[in-house]
Write a structure and sequence with these properties.
The structure holds two protein chains of two kinds. Chain A is of the alpha/beta class. Chain A has two domains: about 150 residues, Rossmann fold, CATH 3.40.50.2300; about 130 residues, 3-Layer(aba) Sandwich (Rossmann fold), CATH 3.40.50.2300. By secondary structure, chain B is mainly α. The chains are: A alpha/beta, B mainly alpha. The interface between A and B is large, with 48 and 62 residues.
């Protein structure tokens, strides 16, 4: 029964060792964030070298996409409707160039489980990994290892650190999102009248970027007859957005249209207008998902709204991967390739391919989409 | 000193039987009944079958991937094994790991050197363990309730420390400590601390009076207290060890993924508990061996790795894990019933006049005990 002496000795020893280590290490400085600068600068140099070397090697636009190219989608998580639609687009594209399509992924949206899947794909030797990152940095070393084994890396939806992927397929540019919403609103109200914006929170970065760009867009001469009278914030809360819409109608009885660049806001605004005396007089538009808005489009409350099409996103990402694997492109800005039915795309700054303007949904096409 | 053999090795009991068919059956049964031996066998079988059937499984690189995936689980499983043997549980380990990881990121942003941050993180983990230990021993609360509480508390604190931000600019020299492979093999260097700690814990559990006392505490708390074992102090120390290990695993996790985040290792406690139970540790305490647990950790890792390589979907993977866990609880129980039943048969065949066997109790009767210690 010599538990006490043993454990006491052990504890004293451990405490002494830890304090000694702490003393020694803090005395001789050690690795801090500040002297990490060299390290980062070095890696920075390497990546620049690589990207300047790439155009020299160059893509061969005429290269054939080899048959049986294995392209695997690794979304943030599986059983997520948004990613399943993107995967359907990817599968369609892979079918067109006779490759092998697969989708794998974790059931929880964490970076560590994604790393395990990337390792598996490395081991399987797939040609292209198309992934949406749960953490822009945590999956980087695993992607590097996959690249070392010969895989091409395309990111979609959520990018990683640019140094560890070949191309990022961006679903929408802020300019494109702002333009399409002003265009829709202008068309709905016949180019003249008061409009208001129902946003999410007052400090939401993406919302504010879009609102700023929409204000710029309204300066254009063709929109001279449109007056933006108010921007209100529904905090991406259904109830609050509903009340803010109600408040807008009371403050601005002549309001012609409400633009809600948030999926929560647009649904709440549509629900308010649907049940009010303003139905048919005030237009609601903005960014929403077809499943959320279907009812309002069919009953006439909402004529049209927009969002990028995840199916096209997956389709383009798969074609981008094929173009990389075939050697048509290397990921350098300025290179072009053809993405099946979507036509020709050019790689922009930072090796980013932009999907294009958002898709507009109305009663003619909304039933073709399920997300 | 108390030995565990009486509790976990039915072969000792079988030796006491007179020669004959009953004794033969006893040997056969004891081999089957020794769960940790069975897990080792299943592990060997899994590796063998996967190596033959699954493309890309039996390669150096894949061995490296597999080991990197199980290191954190293995580290956390070591102290948890000891805790479960004493009849307690620590469910806060993954959250403590997350909090240590987030703190590591925060201290790094504050400009502290990593050489100082790493011991601080381990110390923080130990403090988190002290909190659990105090609640369980001083206040006498059930560890299940306490550590479910601290599971939520520590995870919440992790988000307080770092928000939803991620710190990822750790120096490459340190990140590669976690992922670099021993030259010429696929084995990562970071397996070494696990191996060393596993040996330390195995010696502690199986070859020291302290380790032996854990079985007594788990098997019969009152008896342990009456025989002079400092039950509360022992449990307290184990919770501190578990916390410190979570801190160490947090450092490993952060460097391995190169990213300090509040949500690191969310839900990992379930994988660790599953591996420990699969390794033959009884959730009611008093039973288990460290080699079984390590086999359990590797078995879960190998199975997951092989099934992923074979393109089995994540849903099926979770189902397999769940079924394994249920099997690891059900099979020993069923085996126990069978053992008890056949003991009765064996006793019935022995002439009643033989006093040496008439007084014999089937060892299964000892194995069944009140779940609450």
């Amino acid at each position: 029964m010599r538990i006490l002496p043993t454990s006491r000795a052990m504890r004293t020893g451990a405490v002494a060792a830890v304090s000694a280590a702490l003393l020694v290490l803090s005395a001789c400085g050690g690795t801090t964030r500040d002297d990490d600068g060299d390290d980062d600068a070095q890696t920075g140099d390497e990546t620049t070298d690589e990207s300047t070397a790439d155009p020299a090697a160059g893509g061969d636009p005429g290269a054939e996409i080899p048959e049986g190219l294995s392209i695997t989608f690794l979304p943030k998580q599986i059983n997520n409707p948004y990613f399943d639609i993107a995967a359907a687009g990817g599968e369609a594209a892979v079918g067109e160039f006779a490759g092998e399509f697969n989708q794998v992924g974790p059931s929880d949206a964490t970076a560590s489980s994604q790393v395990s899947y990337i390792n598996t794909l490395t081991q399987q030797g797939v040609d292209v990994i198309v992934t949406s990152a749960n953490d822009p940095n945590a999956i980087c070393p695993a992607l590097e290892e996959a690249r070392g084994a010969g895989a091409k890396i395309v990111t979609y939806d959520s990018d990683t650190d640019p140094s560890c992927r070949d191309v990022f397929v961006n679903q929408a540019s802020p300019e494109g999102i702002a333009q399409v919403q002003i265009e829709m609103a202008a068309e709905l109200i016949g180019g003249e009248g008061q409009i208001a914006i129902l946003s999410a929170t007052a400090n939401a970065t993406n919302q504010n970027t879009w609102i700023g760009l929409m204000e710029e867009e309204l300066q254009k001469p063709e929109y001279a007859g449109i007056e933006l009278v108010a921007t209100v914030y529904g905090d991406d809360d259904d109830q609050k957005s509903f009340q803010e819409t109600q408040g807008l109608m009371q403050s601005y009885p002549d309001l012609k249209a409400i633009i809600a660049p948030t999926t929560v806001g647009i649904a709440a605004a549509a629900r308010y207008i649907d049940g009010s005396e303003y139905k048919g007089q005030v237009h609601v538009t903005g960014l929403g998902t077809p499943n959320q808005m279907r009812e309002f489009v069919h009953n006439g409350t909402v004529e049209k709204f927009a969002l990028w099409n995840p199916e096209e996103l997956g389709y383009l990402a798969a074609w981008t991967g094929a173009a990389l694997a075939a050697g048509q492109i290397t990921g350098a800005p300025g290179e072009t390739f053809t993405a099946g039915e979507l036509g020709e795309y050019e790689i922009g700054e930072g090796s980013v391919v932009l999907l294009g303007p958002p898709t507009v949904f109305d009663s003619s096409n909304i039933d073709d989409f399920d997300f | 000193m108390v030995r565990d053999t009486a509790f976990e090795r039915p072969d000792v009991a079988a030796d006491a039987l007179p020669d004959g068919p009953g004794r033969e059956r006893g040997r056969w049964r004891s081999a089957l009944a020794s769960w940790d031996t069975a897990v080792l066998a299943v592990l060997a079988l899994t590796v063998l079958v996967a190596g033959m059937l699954v493309d890309g499984f039996a390669t150096q690189r894949n061995a490296g991937f597999l080991l990197l995936d199980v290191i954190a689980i293995g580290l956390l499983a070591l102290p948890l094994t000891l805790i479960i043997i004493t009849g307690e549980i620590d469910l806060s380990i993954a959250s403590a790991l997350g909090l240590c990881s987030a703190t590591m990121g925060w201290l790094w942003l504050e400009g502290l050197p990593l050489e100082t941050i790493i011991p601080l993180c381990i110390a923080l983990g130990a403090v988190l363990g002290v909190v659990n230990g105090l609640f369980v021993t001083v206040l006498g609360l059930p560890s299940l309730a306490v550590t479910i509480g601290t599971l939520a508390l520590y995870r919440g604190l992790a988000f307080v420390v770092l928000g939803d931000q991620a710190v990822a600019d750790f120096p490459t020299s340190f990140k590669s400590l976690a992922t670099a492979k021993i030259a010429g093999t696929g084995i990562p260097y970071s397996v070494l601390p696990l191996v060393v700690l596993a040996i330390v814990f195995a010696i502690l559990l199986h070859f020291t009076p302290f380790g032996r006392s854990l079985y007594v505490i788990g098997y019969n708390r009152e008896a342990a207290a009456f025989s002079g074992i400092p039950v509360l102090r022992t449990k307290f120390l184990l919770f501190v060890a578990s916390g410190a290990m979570a801190g160490f695993a947090g450092v490993f996790w952060t460097l391995r993924f190169g990213s300090a985040r509040g949500d690191n290792a969310t839900g990992l406690e379930l994988a660790v508990v599953a591996a420990v139970l699969l390794g033959g540790v009884s959730i009611f305490g008093g039973k288990g061996a460290l080699h079984g647990v390590l086999a359990g950790v590797l078995l879960m890792g190998a199975l997951r790795n092989a099934l992923q390589l074979a393109n089995v979907s994540a849903d099926v993977l979770s189902m397999v894990t769940g079924l394994l866990l249920i099997a690891s609880v059900v099979i020993p129980n069923v085996a126990l019933r069978i053992r008890e039943a056949s003991w009765r048969c064996a006793l019935a065949t022995v002439p009643r006049t033989d006093k040496s066997t008439a007084s014999w109790q089937p060892p299964g009767a000892e194995d069944r005990k009140d779940p609450t210690p």
